[in-house]
Design goal:
single chain; 375 residues; alpha/beta; TIM Barrel; 2 domains; 6-stranded parallel sheet; 9 helices; 29% strand; GlcNAc_6-P_deAcase; hydrolase
Length: 375
């Protein structure tokens, strides 16, 4: 048994005490409630649930679309920044390339590698998006068919699919995809406010990187952003402070009850400035951002530990709420009652930080990760 002593952070508050870990699970949570502002006092470790990131294109110099052992390297890099569970995210590409990537992802989704985050499944971001809202996606957008999506799902479990609902036939697909266990997110869309509301009514569950690659909010044309703010229960957002202005993040936090954070990370995450692959594109990491040659933001170099620090230190969220946004809300969205929380019976996915939220230790399913070797 492993005992971790410190200040235990949950979405409900902070407990000064200890966790007992054994057989990959949390066996006991003991302690006394304290004010959230006291977490880490007098050098006590701060214990948080492992982070859940449902939008990961790459990291450590590798890209999901490479196939082969790329996802192993990606999962090993992100776990060293506190991400204990992730969705490997594809790019818009020819179907043959997507199939190749999913074949490589299938075995990794079934079995976690040593010293790695758990790959919880796939986020299929494209090719079923609007040709007019590609963002940094290559120009291979096509309409979806149910048979095609289910065939891809048989190669690796698709947990989330990004779709532009205004494209012909897409609205009718949302219900059958939901019934197949695939969460449909609205994104990379030129659709209107009404298109967004119709998609939500049809069973769409959230929005892909809210504000980015979708029609914006105007007081006479509320757009897809307006549909999200007025009606959305769930949405992902990139809190690197480049993709979305802090004021817009604050507005979304007030409007969308279960808003959660993602990195939209590329191969540049955890790497020095330089040139990296994003699908078929080459992108440049510089000054904390990742861009195409024309200056378009192309994913990010964000890691989830930095996302947490941004929420607390730049956006003034209380630590329990910030933890909900980087861990619990995404786990709940995926239907994972035993991840993203520090509770008896949950997987022993634990991040240990200091009072300044610098990462010190990580456990995935009870295995301690060597965070120094690949920090």
């Amino acid at each position: 048994m492993t005992r971790l002593e410190g200040d235990i952070v949950t979405p409900q508050g902070v407990i000064a005490g200890h966790l007992d870990l054994a057989n990959g699970r949390i066996q006991a949570v003991h302690g006394t409630p304290i004010a959230a502002e006291r977490a880490g006092e007098r050098g006590r470790p701060v214990l948080l649930p492992g982070f859940i990131d449902i939008h990961v294109h790459g990291g450590g110099g590798r890209d999901t679309m490479e196939g082969g052992d790329a996802i192993d390297a990606i999962a090993r890099r992100h776990v060293r920044h506190g991400t204990t569970g992730l969705l490997a995210t594809t790019m818009t590409a020819p179907l043959a390339d997507i199939e190749s990537a999913l074949r490589a992802l299938g075995p990794v989704c079934r079995e976690r590698g040593a010293q790695s985050a758990r790959v919880l499944g796939v986020h299929l971001e494209g090719p079923y998006i609007s040709p007019g809202r590609l963002g940094a996606q290559p120009a291979y957008a096509i309409p979806a068919t149910l048979d095609e999506v289910l065939r891809l799902n048989a190669l690796a479990p698709i947990k989330v699919l990004t779709l532009a609902p205004e494209m012909e036939g897409h609205l009718a697909l949302i219900g059958p995809l939901r019934d197949a266990g695939i969460r449909v997110q609205i994104g990379h869309s030129n659709g209107s406010y009404d298109d967004g509301v119709a998609a939500l009514n049809a069973g769409a569950s959230g929005f892909t990187h809210l504000f980015n690659a979708m029609t914006g909010l105007h007081h006479r044309e509320p757009g897809m952003v307006g549909a999200a703010l007025a009606h959305g229960q769930h949405a992902e957002l990139i809190p690197d402070l480049l993709h979305v202005h802090p004021g817009a993040i604050r507005a979304a936090l007030r409007c969308i009850p279960h808003l959660f954070c993602v990195t939209d990370s590329t191969a540049a995450a955890g790497m020095p400035d330089g040139e990296y692959r994003l699908g078929e594109h080459m992108v440049q990491k510089c000054l904390g951002g990742v861009r195409l040659p024309d200056g378009t933001l192309a994913g990010s170099a964000l890691t989830m530990d930095q996302a947490l620090r941004n929420l607390v230190h730049k956006l003034d969220l209380r630590l329990p709420d910030a933890v909900r946004r980087v861990a619990t809300a995404a786990a709940d969205y995926l239907g994972l009652a035993d991840r993203g929380r520090l509770a008896v019976g949950a997987w022993a996915d634990v991040v240990v930080m200091d009072a300044g939220l610098a990462l010190r230790r990580v456990f995935v399913e009870g295995e301690e990760i060597d965070v120094v070797a690949d920090a």
